[in-house]
């Protein structure tokens, strides 16, 4: 059988972390009482007009720069029309013709095999980033034949990040999304928490034989976590392969991922091709951005956005942070990934290193194996750790000074997890775990043991 | 005080000096509204709130602290502007009973300066039309239908008191506002102008109708027809008053991103005496098919007036003028289709009882809420916006729009200061004749002289010029350079002084205020 080449592209919607919405002054807040964060504009009251939120533009510029994009100094807003209960105006304001950023790239790494022994780095091209409005939420109450509409989310700013179909499987997509998530969180442009709907991923999947043109693609939606993303994509790839091998065809359709069944199913309400009747948004002039060269002299800098100014103030991205960790502490690249993957773990590690004489290369083991596995077992975040960096450093110092053995240290740590406020030294004394340094004392103990077990000693001597 | 006196020169002075009280002015206007009810100019009369505002104004005058020239001045607002607490209907079933929670910026500005809001005026539904005949509250009647001047010229009817006799339309779509100003029920009114909707009824009703430069006055709160062409319009009885209103309304609004950022300085109009440095352009394409010989003669006479006064009068060409109607049709309907998408019955406005599904509820709501004109434009607009048609129609129309705008740029760059054109093809038609053709046909015909200014975003003004042979008003239009309202209004004021357009002789007005006829000039332009 000829091999199949799966092709995966992603459309990611990241909610912008801002105080107010993209085009109106109402607040952005998760889980507020229904319809409590809705301005006249959000409710599409006739006569209201959009006013662009500066912070949202800055977030998009930051993200574009972090993803190596060209920032378009002039970008445009458009209306995308369709009727739906959660879209009060009957159109969404988006950027279809000229988005704010284009032609970037994202590098991500993943383990080559299940043994997590070696990492490989891949790149996915970023087609574009566009600013657009989020829709409200509608809940279908079938028992009462009604639809409940909550417009709190309507108008919240989104960055749509389009990743080209450079990925080949669920694992790659998951790794790419994870890296994007870290970047967004580092920048602060989005909190990117999937469970709170701040990061939504749709996957475009198709398969073809090498050398042949790309196959028909399906769009997979309703994916609520990175883990499900990988599952959904891999399922869909398999489904398409099986379908084609059985002589069937793939429909260009939208499918929803059913997390309970672990499969994708066709979505009923997306029948037929929608013509969105795109039209320029007449109430918003073109968005003009400046850089150091093009910035006019007399311009009030409150009124303009300077791309170079933003660029200079970008924080270290995850890839840079990892590199620095590897260089500074001599840890493995894989270690740096795990450190950054857990919120607060890198800071914890660095804090421990500062407070102990133990070499970072040895500290890392304690962090990644002992600390992290304990946290995972108990579903705790680093911030919730009952063992502070101070306590762990204290413990590691005892080990380093050879006052206790490695086994004893693990015992002490187990005790520390109880969070009873005892110091490592107190626990060592309590449980008599000190390593004996005194030779004479050691001899005395040995002789006492031998004296107490005469019969066993005679048996041993006789062989 | 003379109801027809200028705001700055007479009414404001009278109020300040205590010769007339704001409450008195308000009462008089309300009474006149009641006795001219047959005009159907008002959809909502806000008696209680108006009187309250008048009382508050009176207090301020007593303390010697009026807010400005507009303090205590009764005004009317077209019913497509949002007014908090007062119904805003757009003359449509879709918004019957709709009470907006906010004031349009222009309404707020007027209220902040102490103006007294008498009520909301009638229009074509959602401002679509050129007759003010196609709203759900019925057509507006031109006050001149009942004027002595018109009655004298028309074939004598058996029942001279019969209000049903052959009354003429106001033009549109801001017919209610034009009629309100024309019949002295208010001192000024807000209209809107997308293709001529302020200037057209101004011409037919014999009042000043100003379309400001796009971006000068905020559209926040004006329910949009075509966002890229709409402007709030100003209707007054003289050019000076239009300048007063402009001064109180213009300027950047952070709520409207299409308003310019530059500071706007209100101005008083100088009394121009020397026009020798003025260059007036006469665009030959405005000699449009269907232009009545009467208006053609008037236009020519006006050009001569400028020439004889020493101005340079030159024929110019705006070659793309003939294409503006179709271009306007495509762009207007496309924006309408988009702007009307929000009327789905969910958040506000009419909602149908149809419950089978959300889609069927949308369809029924929109069928019940919109009239044929609105629905027709939505369907056309959606057609032009379809993916396969977008380039052919919408983008093409945008390009033609650019050409039309460039015509004006070229002409103004060649040394012409101002353009002089007719405003309408003829005087006001009788209603029974007007409704023989459908809205689309009428709009296409009637907008031809006014619409290019909207395409180009330029300021333009109708100045009442003379009475036609039928005794009805005819106006002429001046089109100026972008943001050069001062020059435009200065020239318009000079012209207004030259032509001495007669005051309407309305029985109802005479009963309420005999002063009105005191300052009538005998000389007239026609």
UniProtKB/TrEMBL annotation, chain A:
Listed SUPFAM superfamilies: GatB/YqeY motif, Glutamine synthetase/guanido kinase
Record's catalysed reaction(s): L-glutamyl-tRNA(Gln) + L-glutamine + ATP + H2O = L-glutaminyl-tRNA(Gln) + L-glutamate + ADP + phosphate + H(+)
Record keywords: ATP-binding, Ligase, Nucleotide-binding, Protein biosynthesis, Transferase
Biological processes annotated in GO: glutaminyl-tRNAGln biosynthesis via transamidation; mitochondrial translation
GO molecular function: ATP binding; glutaminyl-tRNA synthase (glutamine-hydrolyzing) activity; transferase activity
Asn/Gln amidotransferase domain ranges (all copies): 347-462
A family per Pfam: GatB_N
Keyword Transmembrane carried by entry: no
InterPro entries according to UniProt: Asn/Gln-tRNA_amidoTrfase_suB/E, Asn/Gln-tRNA_Trfase_suB/E_cat, Asn/Gln_amidotransferase, Asn/Gln_tRNA_amidoTrase-B-like, GatB, Gln_synth/guanido_kin_cat_dom
GO CC aspect terms: glutamyl-tRNA(Gln) amidotransferase complex; mitochondrion
PANTHER family (UniProt xref): GLUTAMYL-TRNA GLN AMIDOTRANSFERASE SUBUNIT B MITOCHONDRIAL AND PROKARYOTIC PET112-RELATED, GLUTAMYL-TRNA(GLN) AMIDOTRANSFERASE SUBUNIT B, MITOCHONDRIAL
Homology family: Belongs to the GatB/GatE family. GatB subfamily.
Alphabetized NCBIfam families for the sequence: gatB, PRK05477.1-2, PRK05477.1-4
Protein name: GATB amidotransferase
Automatic annotation (TrEMBL), chain B:
Gene Ontology process terms (BP): glutaminyl-tRNAGln biosynthesis via transamidation; mitochondrial translation
All copies of domain Amidase, residue ranges: 34-147, 169-489
Keywords carried by this UniProt record: ATP-binding, Ligase, Mitochondrion, Nucleotide-binding, Protein biosynthesis, Transferase
Listed GO MF terms: ATP binding; glutaminyl-tRNA synthase (glutamine-hydrolyzing) activity; transferase activity
Pfam families, alphabetized: Amidase (PF01425)
GO cellular component: glutamyl-tRNA(Gln) amidotransferase complex; mitochondrion
InterPro entries, per the entry: Amidase, Amidase_dom, AS_sf, GatA
HAMAP family listed in its UniProt record: GatA
PANTHER family for this protein: GLUTAMYL-TRNA(GLN) AMIDOTRANSFERASE SUBUNIT A, MITOCHONDRIAL, TRANSAMIDASE
Protein name (Swiss-Prot/TrEMBL): GATA amidotransferase
Species for this entry: Emberiza fucata
Gene it is expressed from: Qrsl1
